[in-house]
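Hi P.,

Sorry for the delay on this. The queue was packed all week, but I finally got your sequence through. Input first:
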Amino acid sequence: MHLTTESSAIFRPAQPGDLSGLDDFLNKHQASKTFDTKNGSLPYIIVETGLPSIKKKKEVTALQKKVKAIFKQMRSEIDRIQSDNKIPTRGKRATELEAAVPNKLFLRTKAADEAATQIRELAIEAHETEGNFHATEYRDVVDSLFGKLCRSLINGPLSQTSARAVAVSTIVPWQTQKIYHDIFIVYPDVYDEAATTEIAHVLIQDHRFQTNQLNMGVRSNLYRSCKLTKSEDGFRAMIWSLKDLDLKQPRPATSNKRKAEEELENPAGPSNSYEPAAMVPDPKLTPEKKLKPDDAQVESPSVELQSGHFQSLPPPPPQA
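Then the structure:
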């Protein structure tokens, strides 16, 4: 998703880690109450980190032409495979007497993988690797979730990753029956598996996203600009889905890359960095009134889990 920054409500902190002004911005711009205009001038509400954006090495238009040419060549190859009667629908495994015979599905997938690899090499060379995690959330809870993601992005768990922005879609006037919003976590390199896995760990462990949440996957801005948004003939529109990532391993240690970037931008550090408050003992709990282990209360589940708003949603309707 290319964030239409020229026609969206955007918050940029005065310096990385500075939360001042964020609450006022979120109170003024609530996705559940904000309508996009007829000319599409307010499609998203965006909060950024304040870090510099990645500079493009080449013109995107020239890159798009190359990507579309690769995709067109792939479609021609797949059509040739489908129409070739000499290629069996069911292949044969290699034996001591005969070589393996690939089937149509194997050859289609191979052609799609080769095309995806070529596009990846072009994108990395042109520094056009930006993309986002994409998820959806119900309208009645989207403002709360978006606010938590924004605070996490500026001065929280997401700030320790390569994430650069969080965005949420507004209400489209002619789709008022649509009861959920799109949420995007934008970061500079969707082909970086380690960075992708790190963001996924934060979304799941700190923000309670489910691994099977609707549309939860990584999409490339380049794919979207070339209209490669549908998976077909073995070609995947997503760069990663959560099942592709190794999320069973412990959460990786936070790299110092983001911290080094912030130090370069602001050597003195943020003006209101978060510091945990010191614990103050309760005077009412005298030594005689201390709770026994058997009397300890079990913490009740959070409201977020009780509401069940992270359950899977129905697929979104086609855009008008």
